[in-house]
Amino acid sequence: MNKFKLSLLSLAVSTAGLSSLVAAQQQPPAEEPVAEEQQVEVIQVRGFASSLFRSLDSKRFGDVVSETISADDLGALPDVSIADALTRLPGISAVRTGGQAAEINIRGMSGGFVFSTLNGREQVSTSGKRNIEFDQYPSELINSAAVYKSPKASLIEGGVAGTVELKTTSVLQNDKDHSFNVNLRGMFNDRADEVPDGQDTGHRFSFSYQGKFLDNTLGLALGYARLYQPSVATQFIGLAYNGQKDVAGDEQNEFISEGFEIQHLGGEETRNGYLGSIEWQPHDAFSLKADAFISQFDKESFARGFRVKFGGDAAAVGNPVLNNRSVIGGTFNRTSQSFTRVEIVNDDNRDYDEVKSFGIAANWDINDRTNLVFDVSHSTASSDFRNGLLWALVAEDATVAAPQLDTNVSISYLLNGMNLPDIGFNQADAFSDIDRVMVSKYGIYPFVNSDEVNAVKLDLSYDLDLPVVRSFEVGVRFSERTYSNDRSVFEYGSDGAFLNSQPPLQLTADMATVVDFQGDFANYPSYLAIDLDKALTAWFPQGVPQPVQTWGAGNVGVVNRDPTSNVDTSWSVLQSGEVYEDVLAAYLMANLDTEIFDLPLTGNVGVRRVTSDQSATDLTDVGGDVLRGAQNITDDAGLVNNQYAQSILGDKYTHYLPSINLNLNLTENTYLRFAAAKVISRPPINRLASNTSINISDDGEINGSSSNSPFLRPFEANQYDLSYEYYFGSGAVVAALFYKDIQNFINDFTIQEFDFAGAGFAVPDVIVNEDGVPRATFNGAFSTAVNNDRGGYIRGLELAYTHVFDFLPDFWSGLGVSGSYSYTESEVELINTLGGEAITTTFEGLSKNVFNGTLFWEHEGVEARVNARYRSPFVSSQVGIDEQITNFDSELVVDMQFGYEFNDNLKLLFQVNNLTDEPTKSYFGQKAQTGTLQFFGRQYFVGAVYSF
């Protein structure tokens, strides 16, 4: 049997040039001697080419199908976040938010199917779901990341798409006794001058220290990373088609969009990351390591421009232009029944996110064969998000004592596919006239959520002296997770009228500035940008409560509700609540090392047993009936609601998850891998929350509905992987096939004769109807989210190629290429009606074609590379609109980097992200029905890295 000697693998990765295959740290089992004549040659090259070869080593000797990235030193990964780095791996693509990668998709599956750990510990998310927002993690503080595409029994369950394992540094494994790294870069965005008050410059700064003490028995690592960057964009957003009207005169209704938005986005993003690690190894058989990781990501942004409301079926529609039966153009005129209008928007959004991860692990070699690892961890994520919305409407004359809303509204538009639409307004001149525009409403809508998991696990491995099984592993893990969300509201005025009780505000010259659209948007009307603080100070009269906020340190504070408002805000109670999730998992796994037909065969086979106990707080609408449990419930805004009964609902279930990974060494340089497993992904944590409405009819029939459900079960899939890998002296070729048999999805469904009492709902046995006659209640229908038994396959092909052209003359010997291509298809079809007509779409996150390529050249300290990432159209949530699922157009993102290494300590870098200024574009089912057109600009970085 061939034995392989592995060196310590590490990789220094750049933003623009991270290859599609990257490295992880691997070492051979200590008990396996290495035959001198069977050692695999380790190619000794420097720079980026070296990282590629180490990457190939990692893939070559790994026991599962995986891709990895790592850094030689803490702080050496220069990407803005670990999300940017991950998107350059085969089969992985990104959903860009604000022009940057945030959520990743793996093999055509969205972020909700991606599980993530930090130092082997489950991570919770600031997204309010389970989707990890990887832009929360500074790349400077992450030492390595692995994407496991095939699982093994010892991995924590949860990733149908895959598992991303992030790791911070382990100091005692360093070659150096002490190391220090400083990274400083300035940043410039070339579209910031198109956004009023937009910031065009930013910076990145990080430093790290790693040291070994007490004869290399004590290790200490400290790191800090700061990112300050402008957030700028100019965008058009088409809104969902939620109205119907016969505009063609054929006695059939056509679908009408709610309207559209044209806006400037600006603001700033500040992320501070902190890392601390201490490791103690008093002797070879025992080590104790404690880790702390904190990332605070604060975003303060504004949206300015206008929002158009077409007015639904009550508006007068002239000269309609249709795409099938959906209106994509025409002239909308306000009628006495419609709300057709143009709103001048000056919104203020604040989002304070924080992730904390703490853990301590003890690793003990009990004897020469037995190893025991005990780990305790705590992970929290909190997000304090606040919409501050300021509406302004056009008045006939804003200077008079009793101003009137200008109801003479006519809006003409024609969508232009993936280009900006043609738009005209009869009120266009008024949008920038201080004597016509008046502030009519202000509202604050805080959304605070927190997610916390505490876990403890114990893993034991035992080496065997058997022909087939090299060792076995057994372990147990218990975790407690609590998720909570809280809503509250402040509202004053009206977004569709001028109220007498809350009259509109007349603007003064010091409150507003005329803003012009520029660049691609230069043909659109100017508007008034309003100073929010000055307007609110002038507007709120004596005695009216102003919104009070205690922002900072992640504290949303208190938001007072206007006592004179008659707006129904019961949703603030219904959208608040908690979810509890306890998980007990145990596994048994055998590690294989044998031969078949005289060919070395390694791998593992095992099973993981997972018992989940989940529950959620529930509010059942009992119409204020105290006998059925109605209570006074007060939200953070002081709103008291007495219509609901509180309870706890939930479910408990067990999964068995078998897995097998086999690696066959066909020749010294050729490998064949096969993997099979049953996998699960839990429902989005917010969908386990319960928001139930129950109605009991006069004859006693109980009916109910809930958009979420604490009874939801995980997604399940059986998956298979087969890959062929060939390694040659200066590169490799890899081809892989994968197949996922998805067992179920979450759909909205109506269950007939649902057992409400058995499920824990507060329902009576008998009611008294309107005639005073007692009626026994009986079960009716319950409409809710359920796991259906309809699934389907996701299957695909991945190809990867790496080659350093070392046969070229000396000057060109550092020229190389690395690339990957993924093809993914699925029979799963989802129905989307946001574009009006029901249209089938692909599975969310699936791009049929994904390409990633890097061309690089290195010579005598000079480093140059260009990276291109392409993904074909896919389905995802539209930027800026909650729960608006659209089709995203294909995109090609190109980055470049040039660097010069003066010596082993100092390196200068110049980088450009989004070199071609690629926008984000989306549409509703068909490109004729425009969704989002968002332009971000290019980002330029100039800086230096110093290490010693």
TrEMBL record:
InterPro entries: Beta-barrel_TonB, Beta-barrel_TonB_sf, Plug_dom, Plug_dom_sf, TonB_rcpt_bac. Keywords: Cell outer membrane, Membrane, Receptor, Signal, TonB box. Residues 1-24 form the signal peptide. The keyword Membrane applies. It holds the Pfam family TonB_dep_Rec_b-barrel. NCBIfam families: TonB-Xanth-Caul. This is TonB-dependent receptor.
